[in-house]
Amino acid sequence: MGSQPESATPQPAERRQLMQNDPFSQPAYTDSFYEAIGGHETFVKLIDVFYDGVAGDPLLRPMYPEQDLAPAKRRFLMFLEQYWGGPGTYSEERGHPRLRMRHMPFQVTPEAKDRWLFHMRAAVDSLDLSPLHEGTLWDYMERAALTMVNSPSVQQP
């Protein structure tokens, strides 16, 4: 076996396609988490319910500078879909997620994290997932929210 020349190395989208067509890349009985919970429609509902809460939240709404939340909704939808085994559109359009770096311009306090989790809890609950799927998704959301905290609590005088 020789090595392939660099020009023959499949690009990320091509690698995904090759793996999807390779019966040995995953056992046939295993769906991705994305597929197991309902795919695109489920993630759209999650994002819609979440951003309905964010839109009216005085602590979180200022962290979304666009007048219209649609661009933020689309980015988050693409990210979550890719993370959970759906389309790789996020990386194709935006590159590596770099979540902490992308959130650094905003003061993400423990209070902001709690508000984010409050709205995400409502969104996750709206999906009526199985206990295993709900627990898996919620565990990720809690851990992700905690890692975004980059500022101390705002002290009231």
TrEMBL record:
The keyword Heme applies. Residues 1-10 have a biased composition (Polar residues). SUPFAM superfamilies: Globin-like (SSF46458). Gene3D superfamilies: Globins. Keywords: Heme, Iron, Metal-binding, Transport. Residues 1-20 are annotated as: Disordered. Its cofactor is heme. InterPro entries: GlbO/GLB3-like, Globin-like_sf, Globin/Proto, Globin_bac-like_CS, Hemoglobin_trunc. It comes from the Bacteria. It holds the Pfam family Bac_globin. Belongs to the truncated hemoglobin family. Group II subfamily. This is Globin. It comes from Arthrobacter gyeryongensis.
